[in-house]
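User: Please fill in residues for this 135-position structure.
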């Protein structure tokens, strides 16, 4: 191998390592998760000032959560790319219960449907959703 080829190989290696470091530094390719109830409440409160969450149903994998405030209003928080997005849960949100899973579909197509594995609590949260449709 010639000296020029070795220099080119070394420069290419340095460039690849720099790009890999940069991608890691800005969070591309990360797998955002909602760590716990406090994290879910903080995300809901960042989405809507004055929300003040008090109760959380967090998906077992941590991809989404439903946060409820003292007034009974709910906010759906989900991973969206490398960040999180939140939408209010109201009568326009359709809920479907399937054993331990609750699927919420918002009217906003870009937000998409969200399926939360809530275990035995799925039925209780589905019941809370039905209250919106009655009221």
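Assistant: Residues filled in for all 135 positions:
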């Amino acid at each position: 191998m010639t000296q020029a080829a070795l220099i080119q190989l070394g420069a290419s290696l340095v460039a690849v390592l720099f790009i890999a470091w940069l991608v890691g530094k800005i969070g591309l390719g990360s797998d955002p998760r909602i760590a716990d109830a406090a994290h879910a409440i903080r995300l809901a409160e960042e989405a809507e000032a004055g929300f003040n969450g008090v109760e959380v149903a967090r998906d077992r994998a941590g991809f989404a959560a439903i946060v409820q405030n003292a007034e009974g209003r709910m906010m759906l928080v989900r991973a969206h790319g490398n960040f999180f997005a939140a939408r209010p849960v109201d009568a326009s949100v359709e809920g479907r219960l399937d054993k331990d899973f609750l699927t919420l579909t918002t009217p906003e197509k870009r937000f998409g449907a969200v399926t939360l594995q809530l275990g035995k609590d799925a039925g209780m949260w589905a019941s809370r959703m039905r209250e919106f449709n009655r009221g």
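For context: The two ends are 77 Å apart (CA to CA).
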